[in-house]
Amino acid sequence: MQKKHSKNHPELHTFLRGHGYRVTTGRKAILTVLSDIDIHLSADDIYQKIHKRYPYIGFTTIYRTLELLERMGIVSKLDFGDGRARYEIADGLTKKPHHHHLVCLHCRRVIDYTDFIKEELEFLKRAEKGLTEKYNFAIESHVIQFYGACEQCFQRNEKHKE
Amino acid sequence: MQKKHSKNHPELHTFLRGHGYRVTTGRKAILTVLSDIDIHLSADDIYQKIHKRYPYIGFTTIYRTLELLERMGIVSKLDFGDGRARYEIADGLTKKPHHHHLVCLHCRRVIDYTDFIKEELEFLKRAEKGLTEKYNFAIESHVIQFYGACEQCFQRNEKHKE
DNA sequence: CTAACTGCAAATTCTTTGCATTAGT
DNA sequence: ACTAATGCAAAGAATTTGCAGTTAG
């Protein structure tokens, strides 16, 4: 159960110091939670997780840290359409492969999936090339997301129809 | 310049009455703005547009109407990542072909594009089929969106580097 | 030491809600 | 007339900001 926060993220240290930022307890703690959980977390999720061990870290620090980490490309900000942002370790900085999200509109559960990435990449490559040429738009990122009903919610709904 | 609000949306009348809802001035006005502009508008955009002619229509009505129209599949709610929702006439209820959005992260401009829809459909068809089978997830909608730098912002940025 | 960072509380912004009143049908 | 719909003002929720005190390097 014990973590080694101090030495956990040598990259973080490099990243931050390299840009003149300081490596603080709060920043390490926040990154550690994100790494350990390794799934999209809201600011509040992070607050809850950290609060036990670091009661003095407030939302201000969390939001400011997330903004910083996002700016540095270490975390990605996600939106699942429920009015609160989620954050996860950026693609490429985790062992997890590139993935996307299936968002259940009924129970708000989110399923990560890593399938069809090859097809997706093919489509993206073409689209990005074409859009860049046609609109002179330099694509930096994309969002591909599916919304619908997860198995449980779908079944529950089917039952109601009977 | 003159509009014929009253007879503008026979479909709306059918839709609403068919579900026991009433056809009110506010609802007609809001749908009319969305149809006339035919581009993603925020609640505030809509408020500004109709406020001149219908000063008594407030945000409450706008939000409630948009929610209703969305629930009925007449308008789509969009998210461009800037913390405020946009709304546009749903695909299929407008003459415009299926489209997606390029969002400039720097000036927040949004470009509609209708290219690569065939490739996209192919990819989506496969992905949806596969995801439905693998996760028993009933896909209802999807979001495909590109973020980046529009021509102007990109050039401005390049200049700074020199 | 000193600039970057933080917590706190207050402010902002978008959106939602309760309730008395108004207006479709 | 009977209810759905509305306006108003107030509440909510997520996020941001000003500022004075704290801490990393």
Describe this structure in words.
Two copies of one chain form a homodimer. With 162 residues, chain A is an alpha+beta fold. The first copy, chain A, has two domains: 1-93, Arc Repressor Mutant, subunit A; 97-162, Dna Ligase, domain 1, CATH 3.30.1490.190. The first copy, chain A, has six helices and six strands, in the order H-H-E-H-H-E-E-E-E-H-E-H. In chain A, a hairpin with a 5-residue loop joins strand 4 and strand 5. Chain A is globular, with a radius of gyration of 19 Å. The model of chain A is unreliable at 1-7 (pLDDT under 50). The A-B interface holds A 77, 79, 81, 102, 104-105, 111, 113, 115-116, 119-120, 122-123, 126-128, 130-131, 134-151, 154 and B 79, 81, 102, 104-105, 111, 113, 115-116, 119-120, 122-123, 126-128, 130-131, 134-151, 154. Strand 6 (138-149) of chain A pairs antiparallel with strand 6 (138-149) of chain B, so a sheet runs across the interface. Chain B binds a DNA duplex (25 and 25 nucleotides) through residues 17, 20-27, 42-44, 56-61, 63-64, 83-85.
Q: What is the C-alpha radius of gyration of chain A, as a whole number of Å?
A: 19 Å
Count all strands of chain A and give the number. 6
Oligomer description: homodimer
**Largest sheet composition of chain A:** 3 strands, antiparallel
Secondary-structure class of chain A = alpha+beta
Which two protein chains have the largest interface (Cβ within 8 Å of the partner's Cβ), and how many residues from each?
A-B, 38 and 37 residues
